[in-house]
Each structure stands twice: as structure tokens, then as C-alpha cells.
Amino acid sequence: MSTFTRRALVTAASAATAGAAAGVVATAPAAAAARPSPRSVFAVGEFESTMSPAGTGAANASAFMADVAAADGRQIVVPPGTYTVGQVAVTGETINVRFMPGTLLVPDASLHAVGPAGKWFQATNCDTRLYGLVVDAQNIPEGCWRSDGGELRMYDTRLANLGFLDLAGNSTSLGTFGVTAKGVAELIVDGYVGRDFVGRKDGTFANQAGKVNHLFVYECERVTVRNVTASGGSGEDNDFVHLLDQRATPTMHGTFESCHFAYNGQTRRCMKFQGGNWSLRDIHCYPGPDFVAVGPDTDVGEQNLNCVDFAGSMGGTVRLSGSFIDATGYVVGVSHTIGPLGKVIVDHTTIVGGRRHAIRTNPEAPEVPQDLLTMGFYAAPSENESELRNCVVKGFSRAIVVQGQRNRVVGNTVEDPAELWFQGGSSLARDFLELSGNKVYTRTPGALSLQGRCARVDNFGNLEIYDNTLLRVMRIDPGNVLVPENTEHSTIFIDLLNAAATGFARNNRAPAGTTPVRTGATGVALYQNQGHHLRPLVTTTDVGNITVGEDNLHTHAIPPYNLNTAGAAVRTTFTGTTAPSANPKTLRVYVGPVAVMTKSLTPGIEGAWQAEIVLIATSPGNQRYTVKLLECDTAGSGAPTVAGVATGATALPSNAQIIVKTTAEAVISNDVVAQVGVSESLEGRHFVFT
């Protein structure tokens, strides 16, 4: 926080001897006076500004510039009062000004002009320090403070009402800027409040006329911004903060910390980054009291696009952490919209959005009606190496969309998305995606049902999809029973759609009746994914034959795609008993619709039998099998009475269930009884059961 010395030391009425004793110059030279020489006549201490609340804008502008020249870097103190100030331009000086509490600057009417005449304060190659600057621009000038080169440090700044309400935009427009820093070696903004900046709309986006920034930083070096609040305003390119480094190798870098942005329906972005390396901490974005959605059927505003955005193809990194982004009024919460040189990393951040579509007329030409799905985190097809980890993404139509290469989506909580919790890839072939450790909660009835799947992955090679879980939020009904709030979500948790996909998917879980991962005709190795409980398929119910004819005993259905990848294998073991009757008894083993082994069991003994089937995929839709059968008398304690081995090949569709079973044909019911059946991976890992 700024501190101030005693007002008694900066009064024009102080005696010269008292001033000398205190080491303070009481009164600066008049604005029109020549620059004093030598400068050593000014002792170390404060220098009272010669601006006057009663002075004209031109007089106070001249006084400000003369004060800077006369103070020789010493701190100029502006006493309380309202000062009208005209256009100020200072070059090659040290500007060190403290505005005391109760000081307000207002612009001269001459600043009400489009272009350079509308710029207020311009510092070129100056070392600038400003304390306690408070401005009411009264919608007269376009810009407040601009520094080109040198250094700029601003503390406890308050700016309001910049930009014109009555002048039309044109080709000479500069845009509306609170603080502009260009080519500055070090920029520090600590303590800033800005509100109600306006841009002069001309119907064209990405030009200067409607551009509005509280802070615009262009190709500077070290940047530190903290304790910022910005709100209100309007314009066609109304971004509270814009950082731009177009150099071949961007070197601008810095931090934003403890920033609060209260947006309305005219705020295109809260923060826009184009190049440079940035660390963002404790950032809060939320709809302000003046936010109004564009219509009753949507949550987004008229101009709102991406709340926090890395835009353009410049290099660099934006890392957002420990923040809360309420992007309910935006189409996208946090985004990397172009690439490929930059990347966005978001961790330990909550991103909140509306679950309804962005339904509005496109604010940009050709201004046609649009119906867009909202997104919490979006990475465009051309970007690389963006990450979302350990975050909460709440709401949105599509919670997470990553379409570039080498992306990681890890350890996030996704709460109640409307249509898709995840979408990866695009029509372009992409390499590497890690999707792991995410928990998805579905709550609203009908959510995650419109797309035919809860998540989709397109056109990726080298997939790592593991430890993701779909959970249905439960509630207690009047009978004190837990029931799921949403039972209508799609029956596929994660759907892999590209036949060229490679990689693996393991340990992904979903409620009973929901397929955790559907691999399609891909080369993705799929194992240890369970519909509800992580265990092999087990049958322990006794099932016997029924009088004459062939009857099914135990039947196991290997779910689709579990034998789709070459080398994937399943071992199924069936066991049972025979009655000590003299009747003939026949046991058959089936793989698919074909009996691959038929054996006559021994009559007249109380026997035990075991059939083991090993089924191995050689390619999608093709398998080889080995079947072994063993029977012993006296419930397995005697010597084998029947033994057999059969081998062969099948061509069963791997995108459908593959049935393995045993049947029995005998004379009296329960001459042959199946007792236990177990199906498991040969690797000892589990596979998909739904």
C-alpha cells in the first residue's frame, strides 16, 4: 500500500529555513520557469506539484511536465483536489509522482478527439513510478497512460470512464486503453481498479475502433500484475487484459496474481494472451451485476467469446493455477485457440459454465444465427502439449475438448456436463493423448445421452486411457433408499472412433449397464475395464441337464472388442459333476455357434470334470482356440477316465459378443451338472463386463 509523508512538509507556506532543515523543497519552480541549474539545489525529499485545481488543462499539463523536469527524479507530491489536465508528453525523464488521497484527475475537453489527439499521458523512454493515480476520464479521451520504452511501475491506480460515447470509430482510431506499455523493460502494476471503459463500435472486429483494454502490454520484458479489479464497459474487442508478443522468439514473461474480473455481456475476453510465458495465480472471473444473457434460451452474453484465451500462433506458455473461473456467460471457459507454438496448462483451478448452448446471432460478420456447444477447456486442432490436471470443470455442454497433439487430461473432476464430458481429436491425425484419473459425475436426468456416448476420441495414435470413472450422483428417496438422479446417460462411457487408433485402455469404470470403453475396430489394447465391479466373470450357480436332449449348462459372453487386438486372450474354465447312473452322458464345449469338442463321459461313476478353453485373437475378427477336457471318478480323487485336447481357428466378429459354453445331453435330469465357471484374461487382468 502507498504511504504518505506529513502534509506539513509539502506546503507552499513553509519557511525556507524549515524546508532546509527538513531536507524538503517546499515549492517547485513555476510551470513556465526555466529548468534550474545545477540540479543539486534540490535536497533529497518530496517536491510539491505546481499543478492547481483552479488551473486550466493546458496550464496543468505544462506544470506536470515542468515538475518532472525540475524534480530530477525526486518524488513529486500532488495535494488533494480535482485537477483538469491536458495532453502530457515526457521523454527521457524519471517520473516519480505520488497523488495524495483525495486527488482526482479529469481530462481537458481538448482530448475529446479520435487518434493521437485523444491520448492523455505519454512517457517515452522514462523510468516511471506512479502512486495513487485516480482518474475519471468522463468519456473524453481514448487512453490514459502510455509508456514506450523505459520502465513503468504503478501502485494503487483507479481509472474510470475511458473511451467515447459519441464519436464514431474510423481508420485513425487507436482504441480505448487504460494503461499501455510498449517495449517496457519492467512493468509492475500493483493495486488497480478500472471500470466502464467503452469502445466505439464500427461493425468490424479485430480493428482498433472497438478495441478496449484496461491493460495492454506489447513486447515488453518483465511483467508483474497483482491486486487488480476490472469491470463493466462495452466494445467489439473488449478484453480487460491483452498481452501481445509477436517476435519470432517471444521473451515477454511475468505473473498475474489476485486479479478479479467482473464481466458483462460486452466483455469479449477477461484475459487474452498472444505470445510470452505467463504464470497466472488466484484469478477470479465472474459475471458482474450488469451482465445480461443475450436471450432467454442461453446463458451467454452478446459479445462473450473465451473467458481466458491463448490466441494466435505466437510461442509461449500460459499456466493458470489456483483460480476460479466462472465462465457461465462465455462460449468457452479457458482456451488455446490457434497454436501450434504455444501451450496452455491449467491446474488446481475450478472452471464453471452454463449447461445450455450458446444460442445467439454471431457478433461478427456475417452475423448469422448460431447454436454452439459451450466448452469448459478447449484446445484447438493446431495446438500442442496443453494440459488440464487436478481441476474441477462444472457444467458446460462439452466439458473438455482437446484436439491437438501430446495433450494430457489428468486427475480432474467433471461435474454434470450436458452432452459430452470429453472430446479428443478431430478429422486430423494426431499423436498421443493421456486421459487418466478423471472422475465424471452425472446428475441431471437425460444428461450425457444426446451424443450416443459420454465421451468420444477421434483419430489419435498412442492413446493412454486409464483410471477414469463415471459416477451417477445418488439421492435419498422418500423411502430412505439411495437412487441415482440420472439413469438415462449413454451406455458407452468412452468411445474410440478411429480404426487407426493405437495405445491402451485399462481400469476404466462405469455403472452397471454402461460400457467403460468401446474400442471399435481400433488397435487399442483393452483390459481391466469393468462395468461395475473389478473382477473376472464368475458363475457359481449349479445348472444341470433336463431329461433327454442337449441342454445349456454354463454360458459366458465375452463382451465386444475384448478380443479385437492381436494377442488379446481369454481363458474360461468350466467345472462340474456327473451322477453315478448307468445312463450315457455327452458333454460338449462351444466357441461361438460351433461345438469344438464332444466327449462321452463315463457312466456308472460319481465323477468330476473340467473343461478349459483358451481363446486368442490373431487379428480383429479372427481367433485360435485350445480346449482341454478332463474327467475323474469318485469326485476327482481317482484316476482320469476321460481326457482330450482340441485345437482350431474361428472367425467370430470381435465387435460383438463371443459366446463360450458347455452343454450336456443325458437321460435323467442332473445326470451332468455344471458348478463353477470363470473367465479371465490370460495376463491375469480383467476385461469389460457390462
UniProtKB/TrEMBL annotation:
Keywords: Signal
Signal peptide: 1-22
Record-linked PROSITE patterns: TAT (PS51318)
Xref: InterPro entries: Pectin_lyas_fold, Pectin_lyase_fold/virulence, TAT_signal
Top-rank taxon, per record: Bacteria
Protein name, UniProt field: Right handed beta helix region
Taxonomic source organism: Jiangella alba
